[in-house]
Design brief:
This protein has 694 residues and is an alpha/beta fold. The chain contains 24 helices and 20 strands. The longest helix is centred in the C-terminal third of the chain and has 29 residues. Its EC number is 6.3.5.1.
């Protein structure tokens, strides 16, 4: 009867400019899709070159190599008898487009350029590409000779069209178009398109997955149809982690769900669905049918091919499932862990080194590395040959089989407690116990000799010796002495990262991990070029509140009991002298604000786009039960003074896993000046005027 169609989508761990590896992963996904009976295969956005090429898109090499890979796909027997939908950049009439290239049996059916480009937050597509603005219009595209030689075609359709097969009609969306208020699937559905496809390059943000799932399901809830979404996964070369979640939905319900976090480089979802279910669903939506009768039709590319078989009565049909979402704590445990694994294996280093202070932030970072080791062992147990090969190369042992996370930690993770005369025995003990429980190779060292040597040089040159404020020194002297300690820790971290394995008779070097959270970065509560300066930082986009919840999750799920005392201790930098052997310095006292307040300021500043005056106006209502308007004004002014004074630190911020939409990352996400007029005279005067009126 030709009712049951079998379609495949995938999540691929592509890597920017890794044309060899990207081609191999595309081939693997096609092989898996065909082996499961699929007649159509959808891949992620720009999968041939990798999504994160950035300014490499300007280079003719990127276009050339993308077409070379496309040629390999077209000529391969592996791509026969299945419609393949792949992503790559294409230059049409000297304009660069982000495209889908859809082909079947060595013939390109359609090149479909992206209509709505992602250009907010981390995305800069308008920098490299131009959106296709000719709705429902198709032009001739003259193929490069290397493709003509394979396909025998001189020109192919290029533009906003849909595919009409023998049994159904398919229309493509690309990533951002699903999120746009005028998504193409609306008009396509009214014009009789029954299968919508979406190739995405969508990255992970805490608590975001449900929004993507809801958008996909709602796309077909009002209009009926089948929606297929493919997504990139993994770290393809920068701060983002693309979180998979490939899915297939029909008539507003999910029928297939891919994993959000996984070490599998290739994941393929296949579903068999009944087209008659789409047709009968649409039949009774009279408002939809009235609108459909007036729609301006899309150009249709006829395809002499069917996604179904003639005799399909006995073919089993996929049924709706309930989507399973991760908790934020699970997301922190899995997302940054997968990102770290990608970074470690692709950088070809031998492991990580972490300055472990015994506080919440560095302990959370250690737990993420432990979670990474747990995921590696689980993947190997499940038969992932790629992960096993990577693990063996990293530990330099061709017979090694990672089975125990603690044992793997011993190979790839070095922790280092750097004590000074201002460190307490409590933090030393907490760091040592946590290192024992996760299995890291742990080093204890004392930095006092180095600190005294550096300060001694200053004293010899100037004839002056700075003192801490508790010993009669000025705040400037005290801060300088704290900064010296912090910066020496950074120097030592890199020294030990380079030479620790050498000293142990082992090859390779270690990547240094930072552990400043998103709130500290926003406030600037860190020393420039201290231990926050590292190679990468897995928690740099995560709030202190979420990290505390994550620590509790690790206590319960990894049985890391050492974390209980770490949770109970007040956060402290331990850079000022002890008082009677006890820590007198705490983070929140130093900052003049709580971590909870910082999260609020951060969300208002970035997500709500609030300057000082707007933030004050919002907070006098939000905090009316706990603060007077004058107290709110004082808090807002203090935050903006500290934020603007310290903004320059964001220019050197360690590349961090992006997990929060109020991240102050200066590289591409949060574009602001770093030299401010820190008096904010006009803005603060407006606040004062309102305070007096109130």
């Amino acid at each position: 009867m030709g009712r049951a169609v079998t379609v495949a989508t995938c999540a691929l761990n592509q890597w920017a400019l890794d044309f060899e590896g990207n081609l191999e992963r595309i081939f693997r996904s096609i092989d898996i899709a065909k082996s499961k009976g699929a007649r159509y295969r959808l891949g992620p956005e720009l999968e041939i070159c990798g999504y994160g090429c950035s300014d490499h898109y300007y280079e003719s090499d990127t276009l050339l190599h993308s077409f070379q890979v496309l040629g390999k796909l077209l000529e391969s027997p592996a791509t026969q008898d299945i419609i393949c939908d792949v992503g790559m950049p294409v230059l049409h009439r000297n304009v660069r487009y982000n495209c889908r290239v859809i082909f079947l049996n060595k013939k390109i059916l359609l090149i479909r350029p992206k209509i709505s480009l992602a250009n907010g937050g981390n995305y800069r597509e308008l920098r490299w590409f131009t959106p296709w603005s000719k709705a429902k219009h198709v032009e001739e595209y003259f193929l490069p000779r290397i493709i003509q030689e394979v396909t025998g075609q001189e020109t192919v359709p290029f533009g906003d069209a849909v595919l009409a097969t023998k049994d159904t009609c398919l229309g493509a969306e690309i990533c951002e178009e699903l999120w746009a208020p005028n998504s193409p699937h609306i008009e396509m559905g009214l014009d009789g398109v029954e299968i919508f496809t979406n190739s995405s390059g969508s990255h992970h943000v805490l608590r975001k997955a449900h929004a993507r799932v809801d958008l996909v399901n709602s796309a077909t809830a009002k209009n009926g149809g089948i929606y297929i979404l493919a997504n990139q996964k993994g770290c393809d070369g920068d701060r983002l982690y693309y979180d998979g979640c490939a899915m297939i939905s029909m008539n507003g319900e999910t029928v297939a769900q891919g994993s959000q976090f996984s070490l599998d480089d290739v994941e393929v979802l296949v579903a068999t669905l009944d087209l008659e279910d789409v047709r009968s669903y649409r039949a009774e939506i009279s408002s939809r049918n009235l609108a459909a009768s007036k729609v301006n039709p899309y150009p249709r590319v006829k395809v002499d091919f069917a996604l179904s078989c003639a005799d399909d009565v006995a073919v089993p049909i996929c049924m709706p499932i309930q989507w399973r979402h991760h908790s934020p704590e699970e997301e922190i445990s899995l997302g940054p862990a997968c990102w770290l694994w990608d970074y470690l294996r692709r950088s070809k280093q031998a492991g990580f080194l972490l300055p472990l202070s015994g506080g919440i932030d560095s302990s959370a970072t250690a737990c993420i590395v432990y979670s990474m080791c747990h995921q590696v062992c689980l993947a190997v147990k499940n038969g992932n040959a790629d992960v096993l090969a990577d693990a063996r190369r990293i530990v330099n042992d061709e017979t090694y089989i990672p089975e125990d996370p603690r044992e793997l930690c011993k190979h790839v993770f070095t922790t280092c407690y750097m004590a000074s005369e201002n460190s307490s025995q409590d933090t030393c003990n907490r760091a040592k116990l946590l290192a024992e429980q996760i299995g890291s190779y742990h080093i204890n060292l004392n930095i006092d000799t180095a600190v005294k040597a550096v300060v001694g040089i200053f004293s010899v040159v100037t004839g002056r010796t700075p003192r801490f404020s508790v010993f009669g020194g000025s705040s400037r002297e005290s801060l300088a002495l704290q900064n010296v300690q912090a910066r020496i820790r950074m120097v030592l971290a890199y020294l030990f990262a380079q030479l620790t394995l050498w000293a142990r008779g082992m090859p390779g070097g270690l990547l240094v991990l930072g552990s400043a959270n998103v709130d500290e970065s926003l406030r600037g509560y860190l020393t420039k070029y201290d231990c926050s300066s590292a190679d990468i930082n897995p928690i740099g986009g995560i709030s202190k509140t979420d990290l505390k919840n994550f620590i509790q999750y690790c206590i319960e799920n990894f049985q890391l009991t050492a974390l209980r005392s770490i949770m109970a201790a007040p956060p402290t930098a331990e850079l000022e002298p002890l008082v009677d052997g006890q820590v007198a310095q705490t983070d929140e006292t130093d900052m003049g604000m709580t971590y909870a307040e910082l999260s609020v300021y951060g969300k208002l500043r970035k997500i709500s786009k609030a300057g000082p005056y707007s933030m004050f106006c919002k907070l006098i209502n939000m905090w009316k039960e706990i603060c007077t308007p004058r107290e709110v004004a004082s808090k807002v002014k203090h935050f903006f003074r500290m934020y603007s004074v310290n903004r320059h630190k964001m220019t050197t911020l360690t590349p961090s896993y992006h997990a929060e939409n109020y991240s102050p990352d200066d590289n591409r996400f949060d574009l602001r000046p770093f030299l401010y007029n820190t008096s904010w005279s006009w803005q603060f005067r407006c606040i004062d005027k309102q305070v007096n009126a109130l």
